[in-house]
């Protein structure tokens, strides 16, 4: 319906203020007062306004329109009065919005709430209400997320957990989530250290979910308080069904009026999907794109289970807010104030074509082998803007030194990193045999076993592989890790993103140290330590990185001789000196507290071994001065991409 038709309908209904507002909009939209001058004058007459609109300018029309929009009468307009005829249709079980509401009828959320209230709901089984997990992802939605979470806290369903996955918000979003999680035990807060898109965050939520059924919810939307109860009841009423979805409506936030979508007041949605958790084991996780992968996942469900096993509840229980930076704005074209047309943007259309072709060529039983999580590369090539994964074009190697007392922790490290890297190198210091979980890596792993304590090179073994790669002119991304840290699902994506940010002209890591050149003892309290398990608000240039958390590009180094690391047990310092000699800055990256955590089982560490016996380290530091900001300035030099890493006040630490 055109804006003019809506205005005329409102005028005929006697809603003169609402009609006048639309006539003003028409004049402004077409920059022509003559189109609606008569209509405006008739509204003025009924509203007892004095004067004539004939002499008004468009600027005056715009001012009058803003004043009218701000009036209490218009703000309180249309608070939900469904006609007896519509109520009768609802009682008959009619849910089709085209039958319940006329094409030119203005609708408010209050109408939809009345519709739900008059629609009978099937009862949940009294003996068992399965645990439901609702996963909400968020990124910079501080204005909306509390209301979104409140709408979930108000759910009538009795057995519910709410998992919030923050996708590296830079505003107060996560602070709000943390506050609410402390107040309400049902809310569990998690976060990513790099922005990887809503589907990567959803996948993390799936790994954390304990529920038998998983629903999803956007952080700028709200839902009806009976959404979960009605959807679960509908799913349980169809025991063979794998998923359920309800209808959603788009809503403008000023007056809570419904925005018709392709002339529909509401329609079945993909964001409303509730899925039995077992489905993810059968068809895999969401594809890790920036948008449209709920559609891709839906197509996988259909291919695996059949369309009839995804049951629909045509009832508006979910409400999308219309805001300028929503993920779907690239699909929207406004036809008037209360109506939009929505179709796939070129990028989404290309993606739809790509994934449909891939799914047609792939047997459904193989889906789970492709759509894994976590991952650093896309399943298939995507156009720019569709993915935030690192997608490294070079192989990613990780090198680890381990001692036998940490074999169990090493198994956890391998499990965490295996989906994120291509190849492993292990220096097994004192192991009697190679553990089975390493053997299962096959060609992805190379192993050096040191059984002789007298000849062990200990943690220097992390760099055996680097010497080989440089000798054979093999370029790659090189990570060194410890056997007693807990590495998160976004670890490699985050480090590779940081390398890209600095155009690979730096070494990045998590645990960093700045030391003054005048230091008299290596483990001195004068050291500035950015501990790996503590938060860091922004990237900081440092003198030394802990080699349990390091990443760099191999080709940044010209050559490397492991023999230069002459003493075992102090590889962090040797590597820092090596970086200085190769004019490479080391950077401790921004992270939130406990992004990395320790899992050493109370076994001895190199720090406890050397903190009171650090003469060799102290001598090395003194012989390779300067350190502090003097060294950092030299390494930054004129490299433009590194300039922001030099603190404004940098004169106090030399």
From TrEMBL:
Example of a GO MF term: hexosyltransferase activity
Pfam families: Glycos_transf_2 (PF00535)
Domain (Glycosyltransferase 2-like) ranges: 133-261
InterPro entries reported in the protein's UniProt record: Glyco_trans_2-like, Nucleotide-diphossugar_trans
Domain of life: Bacteria
Record protein name field: Glycosyltransferase 2-like domain-containing protein
Source species: Psittacicella melopsittaci
């Amino acid at each position: 319906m055109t804006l003019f038709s809506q205005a005329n309908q409102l005028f005929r209904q006697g809603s003169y203020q609402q009609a006048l507002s639309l006539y003003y909009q028409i004049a402004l939209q077409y920059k022509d007062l003559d189109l609606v001058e008569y209509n405006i004058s008739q509204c003025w007459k009924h509203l007892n306004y004095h004067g004539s609109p004939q002499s008004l300018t468009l600027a005056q029309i715009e001012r009058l329109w803003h004043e009218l929009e701000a009036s209490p009468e218009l703000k309180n307009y249309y608070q939900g009065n469904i006609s007896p005829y519509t109520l009768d249709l609802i009682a008959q079980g009619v849910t089709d919005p085209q039958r319940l509401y006329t094409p030119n009828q203005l609708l408010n959320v209050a109408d939809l709430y009345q519709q739900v209230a008059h629609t009978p709901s099937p009862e949940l089984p009294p003996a068992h209400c399965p645990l439901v997990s609702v996963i909400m992802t968020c990124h910079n939605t501080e204005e909306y997320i509390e209301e979104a979470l409140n709408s979930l806290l108000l759910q009538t369903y009795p057995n519910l957990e709410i998992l919030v996955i923050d996708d590296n918000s830079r505003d107060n979003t996560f602070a709000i989530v943390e506050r609410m999680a402390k107040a309400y035990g049902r809310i569990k807060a998690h976060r990513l250290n790099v922005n990887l898109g809503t589907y990567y965050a959803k996948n993390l939520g799936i790994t954390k979910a304990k529920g038998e059924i998983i629903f999803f919810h956007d952080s700028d939307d709200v839902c009806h308080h009976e959404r979960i109860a009605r959807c679960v009841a509908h799913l349980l009423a169809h025991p063979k069904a794998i998923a359920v979805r309800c209808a959603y409506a788009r809503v403008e936030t000023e007056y809570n009026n419904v925005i018709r979508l392709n002339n529909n007041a509401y329609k079945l949605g993909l964001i409303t999907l509730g899925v039995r958790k077992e489905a993810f084991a059968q068809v895999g996780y969401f594809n890790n794109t920036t948008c449209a992968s709920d559609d891709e996942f839906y197509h996988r469900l259909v291919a695996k289970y059949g369309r009839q096993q995804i049951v629909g509840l045509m009832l508006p229980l979910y409400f999308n807010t219309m805001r300028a930076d929503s993920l779907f704005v690239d699909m929207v074209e406004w036809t008037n104030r209360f109506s939009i047309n929505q179709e796939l943007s070129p990028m989404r259309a290309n993606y739809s074509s790509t994934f449909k072709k891939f799914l047609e060529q792939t047997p459904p039983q193989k889906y789970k082998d492709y759509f894994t999580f976590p991952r650093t590369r896309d399943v298939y090539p995507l156009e720019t803007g569709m993915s935030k994964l690192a997608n490294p074009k070079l192989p990613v190697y990780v090198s680890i030194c381990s001692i036998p007392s940490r074999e169990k922790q090493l198994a956890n490290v391998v499990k965490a990193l295996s989906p994120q890297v291509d190849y492993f190198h292990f220096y097994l210091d004192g192991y009697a045999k190679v553990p089975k979980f390493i053997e299962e890596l096959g060609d992805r792993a190379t192993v050096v076993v040191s059984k002789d304590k007298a000849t062990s090179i200990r943690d220097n073994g992390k760099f055996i592989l680097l010497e080989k790669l440089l000798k054979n002119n093999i370029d790659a991304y090189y990570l060194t890790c410890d056997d007693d840290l807990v590495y998160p699902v976004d670890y490699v994506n985050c480090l590779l993103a940081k390398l890209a940010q600095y155009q690979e002209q730096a070494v990045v890591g998590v645990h960093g140290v700045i030391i003054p050149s005048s230091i008299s003892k290596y483990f001195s309290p004068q050291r500035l330590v950015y501990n790996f398990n503590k938060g860091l608000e922004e990237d900081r240039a440092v003198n030394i990185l802990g080699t349990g958390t390091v990443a760099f590009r191999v080709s940044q180094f010209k050559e490397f001789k492991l023999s230069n690391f002459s003493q075992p047990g102090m590889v962090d310092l040797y590597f820092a000196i090596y970086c200085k000699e190769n004019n490479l800055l080391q950077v401790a990256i921004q992270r939130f507290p406990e992004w990395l955590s320790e899992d050493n089982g109370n076994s001895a560490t190199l720090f406890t071994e050397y903190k009171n016996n650090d003469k060799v380290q102290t001598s090395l530091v003194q012989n390779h001065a300067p350190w502090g900001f003097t060294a950092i300035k030299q390494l930054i030099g004129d490299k433009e991409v590194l300039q922001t890493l030099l603190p404004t006040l940098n004169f106090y630490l030399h």
